[in-house]
Amino acid sequence: QAPQAVLGIETSCDETAAAIVLRDQSGKGGIRSNVVRSQLEEHAQYGGVVPELAARAHVTHLDRIIAEAARQADMELSEVDAIAATAGPGLIGGVLVGLTTAKALAAALGKPLVAVNHLEAHALTARLTDGVTFPYLMLLVSGGHSQFVLVRGVGDYERWGSTIDDALGEAFDKVAKLLSLGHPGGPAVERTALNGDPKRFAFPRPLLREQRLDFSFSGLKTAVRLEAEKRQPLSDQDVADIAASFQAAACDVVGTRTRQALERFRAELPEHPPQLVVAGGVAANKQIGAALRAAAEATGARVVIPPPALCTDNGAMVAWAGAERLALGVTDGLDVVARPRWPL
Ligand code: KG4
Ligand code: ZN
């Protein structure tokens, strides 16, 4: 039987994205196209994503991005087997744009619709890129989420921990703002930290002594702010040292928590080899990646970090989640609703 082709649409934050992905009967995936238009420029002057502007930009660009995804895949939209779109969680105006477009295409083409949970799409990406088999532990670290999820199967998720305040990417972004490094902050902090001394400031490692698998980053962010305020005006070396010391604290927290989570995996699923899958924009950070690899090595776990373009928001992950659900015969009606909040 021919592999199934799914169009995926992602509009839940500041990426307008569409992709066509294949999935064969054995579960092997392939990316035919993956087109992403980032709205960085629209939001740059505001130092963060403005929901209303994001929704309007999705309306302006989505049709063209979908047409481009079809062109790059060398397919007509009428040739796909299903239309998938992120239906939440996310900025609701943007989600509505993508989901409504998907409904219109599904209705016009007479194809099934799959309403995808954005977190599920992140969670399943490593199966597309690396053929990872269930079960595995996913660490999602993005601008909106920081959580551990045990992935037992498609639709079978167990959250083991999350953040009680800021997401990790959000902490990077706020620290970058404090240090006037621009938006998005993560890559800027990482670059600046290269010239800094990670040991100069002993920033706190919140919650680290507790056994629970939750994160907290707001105390760390506040400590960084107080240190920066104390030293005004900041020299370039101060800025680099603060960035490096912040990143070291973040790596310490994420690495330690991940080791604890993998130990729990070993204890609770002794019959399965421990596997760690990382998703979200922060996974692009080399120091964070190194901390995660060290945590995996310490617990004898396999670690999979998909390429950065598939860790950050994209259409391929949505198309793939749609293909995985389609293969199980799970589709949605045209009356499915968009959900601003939608925990796994
Ligand atoms: O997954 P993503 O593209 O969007 C969502 O939030 O869903 O993640 C974006 C986040 C931003 O907070 C950004 O600052 C962070 O990922 N990020 C990084 C790096 N690249 C992106 N954080 C640290 N180091 C990086 N190299
Ligand atoms: Zn995301």
UniProtKB/TrEMBL annotation:
PROSITE patterns: GLYCOPROTEASE (PS01016). Belongs to the KAE1 / TsaD family. CDD domains: ASKHA_NBD_TsaD_bac. It catalyses: L-threonylcarbamoyladenylate + adenosine(37) in tRNA = N(6)-L-threonylcarbamoyladenosine(37) in tRNA + AMP + H(+). It is found in: Cytoplasm. It comes from the Bacteria. This is tRNA N6-adenosine threonylcarbamoyltransferase. Binds 1 Fe(2+) ion per subunit. Gene3D superfamilies: 3.30.420.40. Substrate binds at L140, V141, S142, G143, G144, D173, G186, E190, N285. Its cofactor is Fe(2+). One of its GO terms (molecular function) is tRNA N(6)-L-threonylcarbamoyladenine synthase activity. Fe cation binds at H118, H122, D313. Keywords: Acyltransferase, Cytoplasm, Iron, Metal-binding, Transferase, tRNA processing. Pfam families: TsaD. It comes from Devosia albogilva. Its EC number is 2.3.1.234. Residues 31-320 form the Gcp-like domain. Required for the formation of a threonylcarbamoyl group on adenosine at position 37 (t(6)A37) in tRNAs that read codons beginning with adenine. Is involved in the transfer of the threonylcarbamoyl moiety of threonylcarbamoyl-AMP (TC-AMP) to the N6 group of A37, together with TsaE and TsaB. TsaD likely plays a direct catalytic role in this reaction. The lineage of its organism: Bacteria, Pseudomonadati, Pseudomonadota, Alphaproteobacteria, Hyphomicrobiales. Its main location: cytoplasm. It is an enzyme of class 2 (transferase).
